[in-house]
């Protein structure tokens, strides 16, 4: 849909009869989708207030790091603090969150494992007692049963399946030969997770050198993966797409000896539309081997997994740490019934969250989102010690935009590639980014760097939401709200792992406040941090101070001064964005990407996240744009020929098509990624972001 002048005029006409008619100046800032008559609430929200005032162009100075005064060009900066929608009182329902105990007092010695395996667990992995999920799952799996395993994020599910797999394979009477090919197949949704699981398996196999692990994850040349397959991999870890590619093209892959099939993050594997790939893989396995053990695991086993369980598990045990009534002595009949029957939606959709995780929400008007995010990053990572933060965005383009913007404005000259920085820019800050449009080598390097780093800010898409075990992460920021409670759980689950403390912050617009109730209905409790408290960090940094003229007395550090400092920060962003035509157009494309992603929230959340509720002019400010762009194309994807891999999804809406494309590009096997990215680049042209970290 284009925001044509005609539509803008029509919208204007609609409002001329209203006492809150938008001023002529803001004609192009009207709400999206003007076809629908705005409700009173929307009208107020979108058009509240009078003319969006601007500071009259004037020169002002900011102090530089060295105490020098630097004159900034005269630029009109719209008022950040005027004409914003009111921030509603959050009457959040307090719900009793589900809790799981992380550790048990029992040690691994009680499992009857091979002594070398126990000594590897205790000396190499340095673990002594079992976690709850390990205590419940390992004995069941060692008995030879299939299992559906659910326990909270960071509770040790990886070892819960790796230990039984290694124990059983090392004990096989006829010793495993490398050339035998795979005995165990582990499927995970992302390449980083594949690498991480491979690492764990490799460590456990230290004493059993004759068992060879291997990973297939795309990004590597298919030829060299083929060569490794030919030599033999006994425990094979792969993303589904990549494995399907090898099944179709490689003669060297045999499944006749497969004894274990593990689907980690099982619900995600389905979400991503990998169902067809899973069917291909299951058919290939079934054609060559009849008897094997199957395990599905996730912190959030949602409805879809019941379907997957039906086709992949045989008479499984359902293990949920949450479920206090779990009984190992389940009769086969009862267990089968537990898994096959859908649970009540309440049970199914209530997830345990680590007790050591403090969850917060803040309501921020669109205009102030960017400064608020930056202030929070500065507060934690500049003024506090040893903070490690992950910020989630809804698209690769948004990650690139914010990464580049922060790199050029918030870093000190030692680390920053450009000179237009904040006067108080900090060399203590380190920004990294991770998303599906990056080359695999870079993705792996970033993953490793952030993993080993004590501090830093990782900007990423949901490619990092699942399963990744990044040590010592202290804060999770959700700058784009997740599209499901399960995604919320997985994102925040990157912190507070295995009993450590962690915090999360969800940033919502005032119009999105109801999302807090939606979370509460899944027994997710968040407490509010006021936006003013986040912005108040600016008081600690005189780099944001406006120069006082003449005899003007300096303000006490009250709300007025904070607002001025926030405006200085916003102006730094706007200066950078408006430094060239290219940067302006780059910011517009990022805005467009935001709107597109916003349009893809599922139906059940549309009443909260609807493009109609967005104020284009205000949202534009959060991209450093001084004015709302005209003729913004938000649904061009409707006209695009979609190139979906899933015929079943083609019947669904165009927005879902776009979402699926985004997701597939995030999680693809890697073989087609280059082609897809190139193709998208061609089709979208304007959507591509500068490959250099700055225009
Ligand atoms: N028994 C244990 N004692 C101490 N640390 C453990 C134990 N088991 C696992 N860990 C550690 O806990 C961390 C989290 O484990 P893991 O990644 O398997 O969690 P998870 O349940 O799979 O999480 P997610 O749901 O996010 O995928 C890892 O660093 C792992 O090494």
From TrEMBL:
Name by which UniProt lists this protein: ATP-dependent RNA helicase
Subcellular location: Nucleus, Nucleolus
Chief site of localization: nucleus
Region annotated Disordered, chain positions: 1-85, 674-695
E.C. designation(s): 3.6.4.13
The Helicase C-terminal domain, residue ranges: 356-535
Record carries keyword Nucleotide-binding: yes
GO molecular function, one term: ATP binding
One GO cellular component term noted in the UniProt record for this chain: nucleolus
Record carries keyword Hydrolase: yes
PROSITE patterns, A to Z: DEAD_ATP_HELICASE (PS00039), HELICASE_ATP_BIND_1 (PS51192), HELICASE_CTER (PS51194), Q_MOTIF (PS51195)
């Amino acid at each position: 849909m284009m925001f044509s002048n005609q539509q803008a005029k029509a919208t204007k006409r609609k409002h001329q009869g209203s006492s809150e008619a938008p001023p002529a100046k803001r004609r192009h800032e009207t709400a999206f989708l003007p076809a629908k008559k705005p409700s009173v609430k929307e009208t107020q929200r979108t058009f509240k207030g009078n003319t969006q005032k601007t500071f009259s162009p004037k020169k002002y100075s900011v102090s530089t790091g060295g105490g020098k005064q630097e004159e900034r060009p005269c630029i009109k900066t719209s008022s950040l603090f005027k004409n914003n929608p009111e921030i509603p009182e959050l009457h959040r329902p307090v719900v009793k969150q589900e809790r799981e105990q992380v550790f048990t007092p029992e040690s691994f010695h009680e499992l009857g494992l091979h002594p070398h395996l126990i000594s590897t667990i205790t000396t190499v992995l340095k673990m002594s007692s079992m976690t709850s999920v390990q205590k419940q799952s390992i004995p069941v799996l060692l008995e030879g049963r299939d299992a559906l395993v659910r326990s909270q994020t960071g509770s040790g599910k990886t070892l819960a399946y790796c230990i039984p797999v290694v124990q059983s394979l090392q004990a096989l009477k006829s010793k495993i030969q490398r050339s035998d090919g795979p005995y165990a197949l582990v499927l995970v949704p992302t390449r980083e997770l594949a690498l991480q699981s491979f690492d764990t398996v490799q460590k456990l196999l230290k004493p059993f050198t004759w068992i060879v692990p291997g990973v297939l994850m795309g990004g590597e040349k298919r030829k060299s993966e083929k060569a490794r397959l030919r030599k033999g991999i006994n425990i094979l870890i792969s993303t589904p797409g990549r494995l399907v590619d090898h099944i179709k093209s490689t003669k060297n892959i045999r499944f006749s000896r497969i004894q274990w099939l593990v689907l980690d993050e099982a619900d995600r594997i389905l979400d991503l539309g990998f169902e067809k790939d899973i069917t291909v893989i299951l058919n290939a396995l079934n054609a060559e081997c009849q008897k094997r053990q199957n395990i599905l695991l996730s912190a959030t086993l949602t409805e879809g997994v019941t379907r997957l369980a039906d086709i992949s598990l045989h008479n499984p045990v359902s293990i949920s740490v949450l479920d206090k009534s779990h009984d190992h002595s389940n009769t086969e009949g009862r267990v089968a019934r537990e898994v096959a029957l859908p649970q009540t939606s309440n049970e199914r959709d209530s997830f345990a969250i680590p007790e050591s995780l403090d969850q917060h929400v803040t309501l921020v008007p669109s205009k102030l989102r960017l400064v608020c995010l930056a202030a929070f990053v500065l507060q934690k990572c500049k003024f506090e010690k040893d903070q490690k933060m992950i910020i989630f965005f809804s698209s690769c383009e948004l990650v690139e935009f914010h990464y580049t913007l922060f790199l050029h404005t918030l870093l000190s000259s030692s680390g920053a590639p450009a000179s237009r920085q904040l006067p108080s820019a900090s060399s203590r800050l380190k920004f990294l980014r991770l998303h599906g449009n990056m080359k695999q080598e870079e993705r792996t390097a970033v993953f490793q760097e952030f993993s080993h780093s004590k501090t830093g800010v990782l900007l990423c898409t949901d490619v990092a939401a699942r399963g990744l075990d990044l040590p010592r992460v202290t804060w999770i920021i959700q700058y784009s709200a997740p599209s499901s409670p399960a995604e919320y759980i997985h994102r925040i689950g990157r912190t507070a792992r295995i009993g450590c403390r962690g915090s999360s912050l969800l940033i919502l617009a005032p119009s999105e406040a109801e999302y807090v109730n939606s979370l509460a209905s899944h027994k997710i409790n968040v407490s509010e941090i006021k936006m003013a408290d986040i912005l108040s960090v600016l008081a600690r940094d005189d780099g944001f101070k406006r120069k006082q003229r003449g005899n003007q007395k300096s303000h006490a550090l009250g709300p007025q001064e904070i607002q001025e400092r926030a405006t200085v920060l916003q102006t730094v962003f706007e200066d950078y964005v408006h430094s060239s035509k290219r940067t302006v157009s780059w910011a517009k494309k990022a805005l467009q990407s935001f709107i597109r992603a916003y349009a893809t929230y599922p139906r059940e959340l549309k009443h909260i996240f609807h493009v109609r509720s967005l104020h284009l002019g205000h949202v534009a400010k959060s991209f450093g744009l001084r004015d709302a762009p005209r003729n913004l194309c938000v649904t061009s994807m409707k006209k695009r020929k979609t190139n979906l891999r899933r015929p079943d999804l083609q019947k669904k809406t165009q927005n879902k098509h776009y979402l699926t494309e985004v997701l597939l590009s995030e999680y693809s096997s890697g073989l087609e990624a280059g082609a897809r990215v190139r193709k998208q680049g061609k089709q979208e042209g304007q959507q591509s972001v500068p490959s250099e970290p700055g225009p």
